[in-house]
């Protein structure tokens, strides 16, 4: 279903989004706020295992630490697993009964994944730049001549067209994040974005790694938990956001309660119980899996709608984790079980990735 509307005043703008929020999300998430949190313990809780002992884990988790971070993990290029942690395989509930229809578990949802190493953070601009410098790789956004970029729309733009917050910007690329003339100065510690799935796979294979499957990603994202807290906006005991997502009225008012408007450096918020940063919010993350299941309209706005008309549509793939654009009134995908579709070859400013290295079977 596509929601179309015209807005003539700021009051109408806020009212329209409130109506969308009530209609689209109230039923799906009411149960989550009433349920109690449960920690599953057992096999999942111990998945962060002894292989991580004595490894130099990234010293992140606060604003001061993430701002100082260079974007390159300790022992980068000397240690083939630099910046990664090991997770023992185990069983978990894949999906959620409290979210969208396409998140529903199959049967009881119990799913087993094997062990694997996974990046503690999203791949950064610094890491992707090292790959490009070593290989001469040319990204899809550079070959296509542009990428989809988010901006806060004006009232006039909102009245003029749907999805007014998305624009195809000629010359935008991973290394030119807002278009020609822009660069990565001051952004080397941010997630690399405007990369396609093929770009992400090329980087992963350079290091002998892969992209996670959807189940592997969600196993890491849930970090041993199986409670209703997984389906609510991430906040600490004092009510402060613990991830980079949108607070306010999307797309016109970001109250900046989490301390960041737009992308943040990696690792500004505390890690989950598997020592992984930014599994929720900041940038969506590519997986290697094709999107299947009940196909829903892109609640965060279909980026393909603003791509050049001559562009051929590619296979929709699963992206996970939500981004800085997910809000309570639009998207609601700042959750480990959340999933969205993105055309494999469409670069956008809110999608990045992390890599894994599976254990030998």
UniProtKB/TrEMBL annotation:
Assigned keywords, A-Z: Signal
Domain called Sulfatase-modifying factor enzyme-like: residue spans: 82-356
Pfam families: FGE-sulfatase (PF03781)
One function term, GO molecular function aspect: formylglycine-generating oxidase activity
Record's signal peptide: 1-34
Classification via PROSITE patterns: TAT
InterPro entries associated with the record: CTDL_fold, Sulfatase_Mod_Factor_Kinase, SUMF_dom, SUMF_sf, TAT_signal
Top-level taxon of the source organism: Bacteria
Protein name: Sulfatase-modifying factor 1
Organism whose genome encodes this protein: Paraburkholderia ginsengiterrae
